[in-house]
Write a structure and sequence with these properties.
Blueprint (H helix, E strand, L loop, with lengths): L1 H20 L8 H11 L12
Length: about 50
């Protein structure tokens, strides 16, 4: 049972590290982001938050 839990923990740890490495943030205008996404054939993710 301990081996299974240790294996699951290691699997989640590795997947978390890999997910962090693939996040790339773009600092520019939305039009620049659209042009870059189109050139690289990728989607755009827009993250918005609010305090109020």
């Amino acid at each position: 049972m301990k081996k299974i839990l240790a294996s699951i923990f290691i699997l989640f740890s590795i997947s978390n590290v890999l997910a962090q490495e693939t996040s790339v943030f773009f600092d520019g205008s939305f039009d620049e982001a659209k042009a870059r996404a189109s050139a690289e054939n990728k989607l755009i993710l827009v993250d918005v938050s609010s305090d109020g």
